[in-house]
Amino acid sequence: MIALTGFTSYPKAWDKATNWLNPQLDRVGFLSWINLPNWHNWPFQLGLDLQGGTHLVYEADTSQIKVEDISTGMQGVRDVIERRINIFGVKEPLIQIESTPKHHRLIVELAGIQNTSQAIQMIGQTPSLDFREERPAEDTQQILALQQQGQYLYEDPYFQPTDLTGKNLKKAQLIFDQNTGQPKVGLEFDSEGTKLFADLTKKNIGKRIGIYLDQTPISAPNVNEEIPSGQAEISGNFTTEEARILVQRLNAGALPVPIQLVSQQTVGPSLGKVSLGASLRAAFFGLMVIMIFLIVFYRLSGLLASASLLIYGAILLSIFKLIPVTLTLSGIAGFVLSLGMAVDANILIFERQKEEVKQGKNFGESFKQGFKRAWPSIRDGNITTLITCAILYLIGTGMIKGFALTLGLGILINMFTAMVINKKFIQWLEGTRLSKYNWLFNRKWK
């Protein structure tokens, strides 16, 4: 486990070793078939303040929207913006809604984006909703054949546009079947849309109608009969959450919330690099000071605790890569703080062990009781901090969430390394010659 986490957090060490070892194996005839691969490098996801990028603030005009529809409309616009940004190629975009009684804003952070004007143009587009009917089979075959030749690559071979679009949709809402309780999506059209929808369903009975948002199909329900009322239902194997998301997407196209850019801030890559370098130096020197303190005051015990801290750091950094966690300055602050809390756990264990030694217990028994007596304090302190992290993550904004997430993950790993890895180190020493010298484990026995 130590090797896996170490190489995952710092794969260059493995790669350097394999790049040197593979040629040596080639020189040995019966080992030439061995070719050690390089370690897969999962990069860290860096936030705006470390990588550079763009911070945008949009003000939403909700004056023409009912109060009860504002939340759904804002969520719908946020969903569309996030999908557009993902198409643009931005990794881990941060999009948040900030609402007050008078103002509703979207906060957009795009880490690593240099072409800011294009991103702003994409975000500012109004969501596009349209309804399409099935193409004749011969048209579908013809388009598919042309696409194989590299033509009409962006043409939908299965559905063709109609005159019914999002401007004709009055409202979409989440409803439930009265008999089965299954969630469905209800559609309501305006007067023009009612006529268009009636004509569309009349000539497509037994066929499907494609519903597209931003040129992407989101549903294709079957038409069972003509629908002249201007109201329809989309049914299927929806979960409540899937139906809710579909309602948001439909309303985002049918009732777009106008947004206006009110603030733009660009963080250059050089400034982000400076911030990253300063953060890494702070974390490194903090770790060194902690390790020196442990070794000076607790000697061999402190050395073992320092080794467990290094393992703790490797595990936590590997988790940051694998999840992945977007690292920001506040996130690194949470990581450094979790290092300090990891030291607290070790100090509690060592101080309890000193008390047991003063009562005349031997090496193994004193550490066993030290772990046992320290655990309630470690557990309660970490649980209260985890509760605080959960609250901060649920109600906080982007920077606060990053701090809470890294601190919370650090605390969970800390409990594992303090109570499992430290204990394993002590068990290895038990019964050896080193365990007989008390002065190796504490600076002073009282």
UniProtKB/TrEMBL annotation:
Pfam family, one: SecD_SecF_C
Keyword Acyltransferase listed: no
Transmembrane feature ranges: 278-298, 303-323, 329-350, 378-396, 402-421
Annotated localization: Cell membrane
Keywords, in A-Z order: Cell membrane, Membrane, Protein transport, Translocation, Transmembrane, Transmembrane helix, Transport
Major site of localization recorded for this protein: membrane
Superkingdom of this protein's organism: Bacteria
Keyword Transmembrane recorded: yes
Gene Ontology process terms (BP): intracellular protein transmembrane transport; protein targeting; protein transport by the Sec complex
Residue ranges occupied by any Protein translocase subunit SecDF P1 domain in the UniProt entry: 74-134
GO CC annotations, alphabetized: plasma membrane
InterPro entries given in the database record: Acrflvin-R (IPR001036), SecD (IPR005791), SecD/SecF_arch_bac (IPR022813), SecD/SecF_CS (IPR022646), SecD_1st (IPR048631), SecD_SecF_C (IPR048634), SecD_SecF_C_bact (IPR055344), SecDF_P1_head (IPR054384)
Molecular-function GO terms, alphabetical: protein-transporting ATPase activity
Membrane topology according to the record: Multi-pass membrane protein
Annotated Protein export membrane protein SecD/SecF C-terminal domain residues: 259-430
Record domain SecDF P1 head subdomain: where: 162-257
Family of the protein in this entry: Belongs to the SecD/SecF family. SecD subfamily.
Cross-referenced HAMAP family: SecD_B
PANTHER family reported for this sequence: PROTEIN TRANSLOCASE SUBUNIT SECD, PROTEIN-EXPORT MEMBRANE PROTEIN SEC
Physiological role: Part of the Sec protein translocase complex. Interacts with the SecYEG preprotein conducting channel. SecDF uses the proton motive force (PMF) to complete protein translocation after the ATP-dependent function of SecA.
Subunit note: Forms a complex with SecF. Part of the essential Sec protein translocation apparatus which comprises SecA, SecYEG and auxiliary proteins SecDF. Other proteins may also be involved.
Name of the protein in question: Protein translocase subunit SecD
Gene: secD
